[in-house]
Each structure stands twice: as structure tokens, then as C-alpha cells.
Amino acid sequence: MVLFATGDVAAQQAVEKVGIDKHNLARTGRMALYGGAVFGPAATTWFKFLQNKINFQNKNLTIAARVLTDQTVFASTNLFCFLSSMAIMEGTSPKEKLDSAYWTALQKNWMLWPAVQAVNFKLVPLEHRVLVVNVVSLGL
């Protein structure tokens, strides 16, 4: 929750440069709500699932299979949920949001996250993986 809100504050102030007086607190609130109520619990459960269910004798094959599964199942589903829920909370059309942003966002996701997740699954203990994802997201 805190990292999603922090990321939005950074995006508005450092990237978009809207200034404190024009900061969109409702947007920051929506991001915090999504991060705390949806992404955090879902990612925690997902990483546990991958850890427990995708295992091969070859550790590199295990990591590759986890990354492939993560990027085809979770990334696409999470992006759908994120864009849809943001549109609903904004009072706009989820269909229009998905039509305009989904495919481009998913392609951009695939430029960064497979490498991040490969390192995450190989080097980071299970209990810290969601934190790694959130910290990397701050830099985007």
C-alpha cells in the first residue's frame, strides 16, 4: 500500500511535475487501495504458489518456468485487474481503458519484468519477493 502510494506521489511530483497544490490525492488514494487490497495479497499468494508448485530438478529450468508462468498468467491478469479497477474508481469505462492501454502496457511489461523476476526468483527469499517487485516499480 505504502509503496504504491509512494510511487504515485513520485510519478506526479518528479515525472509529471504537477506541484503540491495540484497533486491528485484521489489518484494516490486509488493506488494505495489497489496496492494494499489487491496487489499485495495477490502477489504474495502467487509467489507462494510458484514456489510450491513449479519445481524441476534443474534449478534454471525451475526459474525459467516460474518466469514464463508469471509473465503469461499473473502479469496479464494483474494488468487487466489494475486497469479495470482504476477505470471503475475513476468513474470511466474499463473497456475503453483496456482497449487504449492494455496491449501497450503488457508489451512494455515484458521488456523489463522477465529479467527482474528471473533475478527475484533466483536470489531473493520468498518472503521478500513482493517487496522487490514494489521497489523496482518505484523506479519506473
Strand-helix topology:
Blueprint: H1 2-15, H2 25-53, H3 59-90, H4 94-123, H5 129-138
Helix pairs in contact: 1-2, 1-5, 2-3, 3-4, 4-5
Summary keywords:
140 residues; mainly alpha
Notes on the structure:
This protein has 140 residues and is mainly alpha-helical. The chain has five helices and no strands. Helix 3 runs antiparallel to helix 4. It is globular. The protein starts with a helix and ends with a helix. The mean pLDDT is 96.
Compact overview of the structure:
The chain is 82% helix and 0% strand. The chain is mostly helical and 140 residues long.
Overall geometry comes to globular
- How many helical stretches? 5
Helix % is over 70%
Which series of helices and strands comes N to C?
HHHHH
Tell me what portion of residues adopts beta-strand conformation.
under 5%
Number of strands: 0
What is the gyration radius calculated from CA atoms?
Answer: 16 Å
Major sheet: none
What does the oligomeric state look like here?
A: single chain
Residue windows where pLDDT falls under 50 for at least 5 positions: none
Mean pLDDT: 96
Give the distance, in angstroms, between the N- and C-terminal Cα atoms. 17 Å
